[in-house]
Structure formats: C-alpha cells, structure tokens
C-alpha cells in the first residue's frame, strides 16, 4: 500500500492539530497525559488570584488554578476551577482557603482537610470556599480603629496643651524662671561648699590622720584597761558592796526598833515632851527678859546701881 501525498498531508495536519491542542492546554496548566481531578470553589471575591496560581496542601503544591468565571446564577459569586495533579485524597467537606503568599500580594488556594468526615471528594465536586485575611485586610480593619484612637488622643492633647497655656501665664512663667534660677544658684553654692570641704580635708589631712590614730590608741588603751581588770577584783568590789548594803539594812532595822540615841529620839515620847517643855520654859524666860530687863541686867551711866 502506497501512501499518497494527500494522506501524508492529512497526517501532518492531524498531528499539528493535536500538538496545538496539547500546547494550548499545557500553557493553561493542563497536562493531558496526567490523570487529574477538577474541583470547583465559590468565592465572593478573588483579589489577586489568577489562573495557574498554586493550590497547596500543608504547604506542598498539589495543583493549580485552572480558570475563574462568574456564577451565571449569581454575579456576586465567582466560580474558581482548580486542578489537583496529585493523587492525595481529602474529604468533601474540606475547605479551599484563599490566602496571601507574601507581602507583595500574591494569592494561592490551600486545601484544609476535614479529617472528621470520611467521604472522599470526587472530581467535579464543590469545595467550601473561605478567605483568610491577609496583611492588607488586617491593616484595613485596624486602621479605622487606630485613626479613631489617634483622633481622640489628639483632641485630649489639644485640651492638655490649652490648659498648660492657660496655667502658665506671664506671672507663672516669671515665677518658674525665678525658681529655676534659684535652684541653679543653690546648685552652684553646693558645688562651692563641696569644693571648700574637699580643700579643707586636703589641707588638714595630716591632722585628721593624727586625730584618728589618737582615737585608735585611746580605744586600744581602754580595751587593755578593761582586759586588765581581773575577775578577783570584780568579786572583791561586789563583796564590799554587798557588805555595805547589809550594814545599811542593820542600821535601818535598829532605827525602826528604837535602838540608839537617834532611835530613841524618834520613838521615845518622853524625851520629846521634855524637849518641848524646855523649849517652852526658854521662850517664857526670853519673853520675861524682854519685859523686865532690869530684873536681870543692872547698869548705870555713872557707875551706881539704882535702888529698887
């Protein structure tokens, strides 16, 4: 069987067509020679997501995004077709979480398996779509709160500054400046005093050293004197003191019992009465002498005694 020219051209056209289809699908991320599974995910927004973006499981790439289209029944939703090029299995209730891959805003889809469900997802199933907030979203959520707090702080700061300006009028500023000047003068005086004390110590350093040495010597002498007092001398002093106290106790007892002259003087009523009578007689005699001095004293200017 001979091949005609037309048959050869037909075979080349078929091969070219197949190569074109393969190349087109390969450029779209579809390898016709690999066994793949396709899943659909519904999102409300897919900022930064584009075909050929990776699909990962536990950080490992298992597929890619195939295409993105609007939901014909609800234009608020987007249907994303993903191709799984790995034979890994996960449940139907697993989530397809859209997340940022870096600070520059690249997007990817992570499969989050639901290990509590044993129903394995099949090609063509819909997975649960979720969006993980990225850095930009978090900043956009936090910025309004920060802005409100900054506005509140600025208002309070303005009120504080206004109160400070009201408080520090011209007279208060002058008083504050005067206080600062006085404090500076006090600091200078203290510095001068410290310098004088330092100079005094330097000038009298030999005398201070001598005084300290004398105090140390005196302390050592007192220590030697204390050590030189023997226990026998201390016992003798205590014995004499005890004897003296005993004698004082004996004298006190004798006085209490009326013994001796002092004791009789204290406790004998007869002696007291005799002394009292003698005192009275002496007072009467002195009174009589004052009234009748001639009776007891005789004198004359001319040396003659007057006749009574």
Describe what is shown at a glance:
Helix content is 57%, strand content 15%. The protein has helices spanning 5-27, 135-167, 170-203, 205-228, 231-257, 260-267, 269-291, 293-296, and strands spanning 37-43, 54-57, 60-70, 78-84, 95-100, 107-112, 126-131. The longest helix has 34 residues, at 170-203.
What are the salient characteristics of this protein?
7-stranded mixed barrel, 308 residues, 8 helices, alpha/beta, Elongation Factor Tu (Ef-tu), domain 3, single chain, rod-shaped
Report what the structure shows.
- With 308 residues, the protein is an alpha/beta fold.
- Helix content is 57%, strand content 15%.
- Among the domains are: 1-33; 35-132, Elongation Factor Tu (Ef-tu), domain 3, CATH 2.40.30.
- The protein is rod-shaped.
- It contains eight helices and seven strands.
- The longest helix has 34 residues, at 170-203.
- The chain has a seven-stranded mixed beta barrel with strand order 1-4-3-2-6-5-7.
List the helices and strands and how they pair.
Blueprint: H1 5-27, E1 37-43, E2 54-57, E3 60-70, E4 78-84, E5 95-100, E6 107-112, E7 126-131, H2 135-167, H3 170-203, H4 205-228, H5 231-257, H6 260-267, H7 269-291, H8 293-296
Helix pairs in contact: 5-6
């Amino acid at each position: 069987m001979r091949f005609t020219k037309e048959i050869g051209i037909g075979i080349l056209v078929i091969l070219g067509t197949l190569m074109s289809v393969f190349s087109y699908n390969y450029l779209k991320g579809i390898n016709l020679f690999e066994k793949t599974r396709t899943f659909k995910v519904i999102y409300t927004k897919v900022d930064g997501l584009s075909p050929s973006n990776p699909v990962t499981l536990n950080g490992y790439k298992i597929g890619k995004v195939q295409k993105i289209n609007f939901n014909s029944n609800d234009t608020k939703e987007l249907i994303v077709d993903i191709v799984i090029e790995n034979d890994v299995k996960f449940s139907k209730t697993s989530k397809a979480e859209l997340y940022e891959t870096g600070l520059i805003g690249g997007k990817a889809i992570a499969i989050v398996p639901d290990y509590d469900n044993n129903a394995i997802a099949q090609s063509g199933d819909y997975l649960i779509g979720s969006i993980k907030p990225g850095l930009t979203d978090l900043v956009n959520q936090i910025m309004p709160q920060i802005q409100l707090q900054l506005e509140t702080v600025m208002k309070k700061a303005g009120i504080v500054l206004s109160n400070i300006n009201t408080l520090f009028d011209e007279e208060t500023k002058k008083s504050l400046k005067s206080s600062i000047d006085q404090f500076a003068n006090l600091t200078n005086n203290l510095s001068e005093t410290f310098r004088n004390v330092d100079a005094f110590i330097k000038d009298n350093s030999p005398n201070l050293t001598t005084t300290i040495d004398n105090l140390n010597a005196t302390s050592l002498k007192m220590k030697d004197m204390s050590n030189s007092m023997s226990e026998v001398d201390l016992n003798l002093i205590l014995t004499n003191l005890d004897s003296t106290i005993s004698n004082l106790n004996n004298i006190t007892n004798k006085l209490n019992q009326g013994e001796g002259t002092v004791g009789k003087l204290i406790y004998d009523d007869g002696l007291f009465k005799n002394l009292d009578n003698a005192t009275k007689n002496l007072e009467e005699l002195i009174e009589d002498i004052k009234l009748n001095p001639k009776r007891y004293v005789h004198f004359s200017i001319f040396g003659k005694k007057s006749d009574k």
